[in-house]
Amino acid sequence: MNTSALVDVEDVRTGVDALLRDHLATSRAALGSAYGADALPLLDATDVLLSGGKRLRAAFAYWGWRAHGGNPAAPTPAHHVGAALELFQAAALFHDDVMDNSDTRRGAPTAHLAFAARHRAAGWVGSPEQFGLSAAILLGDLALVASEDLLHHGLRDVPDPTTRRRTRDIFAQMRTEVTVGQYLDMLSQTVPWDDDHAGAERRARHVIRAKSARYSVEHPLTMGTALAGGSPEQIAAIARVGLPLGEAFQLRDDVLGVFGDPAVTGKPAGDDLREGKRTVLVVRAVAAATPAERATIHRDLGRLDLDDAEIDRLRDIIVGTGALASVDGLVDELATKALADLDTLDLDPEARTMIRRLGGAAVARHA
After folding, report:
1. What pLDDT score was predicted for residue 199?
2. Cβ-contact 63, 19 below 8 angstroms
């Protein structure tokens, strides 16, 4: 099965999307009534971003829940958790695109550029660029508030207070980690290069875990486990599966950020190189490069005006140093470990199979 088909099993996508549509419709009515049409473009932009999501995080949460006894005949709480995760991701993407100065997201202009264009077209007073940046920051904040609301609604009918608390605690930890991870990612792009390549890779792995790996796979799985009434031991056990899978997921994303097809990824080719991302892929290339190759990477990484020929030159260095092959090997190593650990756990057999398939799809993806 491909990723889309996997997320459709047991109507996970249908349930999550229905909640997201209901939330947007309710918010549209409330904001339109209270503030008029001027507020509605915020919801339009959120709708655009949400419509392109794969729902992988929602699916990991659902099958973590099913794996530990969640009843598929009463899936609403798990769908609420999934919808909350999708809105949280939307918040992170709105803010991430501002910090990275990204031009496109899922094949469309990023929110800050879309709002700047709106300002410019209307002939409003002030800076269109600043208006766009401010609007995108507020969009991220609004999506974050909405994610909290959906989580609250999903948990209010869960009778066990310990289950509610454990699920909320994981969500709160996730929010903090992603925020810190964003800062660490930003910091890593500003510190001078040195010869401590092991330290640079260690920092890159910290960024992966905090910013993406844990909230992409580990925390959805553990939130689902907690929602099903899982014990601390069960939560810790599924986390040992989720973290390496999440790392493999992000490492694959880093490869796609350099070598992905723009028609599939929805972002310009080599965008991570223009943004100066010091990923494991880039760090390993620097570590294995010749002095001349290293000087090229140091000079060109993070240049927003890199042309296609310069992107190709950096790609050639990454391939020639063996960095691409070694990261591909690390992805396979992490995924193999995670799935081997998955087989040791006492889980619902159907759910175990689905987590395995979702993990494989996340790691082998092309977008």
Report:
1. 94
2. no
Q: Quote the CA–CA distance of 224 and 86 in Å, as a whole number.
A: 14
Can you say how many angstroms the Cα of residue 23 is from the centroid of all Cα atoms in its chain? 21
Q: Which two tokens stand for residue 333?
A: 């190593």
CB neighbours of 336 closer than 8 A, spacing ≥ 6? none
Burial of residue 303, with CB atoms counted within 10 A of its CB: 0-12 exposed, 13-18 middle, 19 or more buried = middle
Query: Are the CB atoms for 15 and 84 separated by under 8 Å?
Result: no
CA distance 86 to 79: 10
CA-atom Rg of the chain in angstroms: 21
Q: Determine the Cα angle at 280 with ends 85 and 177, to 5°.
A: 30
Q: Going by CATH, does the domain composed of 3-364 fall within 3.30.40.10?
A: no
Rounded Cα distance, 78 and 62, in Å? 6
Q: What is the pLDDT of residues 20-49, one digit of tens each?
A: 999 999 999 999 999 999 999 999 999 999
Which helix (H) or strand (E) is 46 found in, with range? helix 40-51
**Which pLDDT tens digit goes with each residue over 148-160?**
999 999 999 899 9
- pTM for this structure? 0.95
- 89: Cα separation from own chain's centroid: 6
**Residue 353 structure tokens:** 């199979």
Residue owning tokens 């995670």:
338
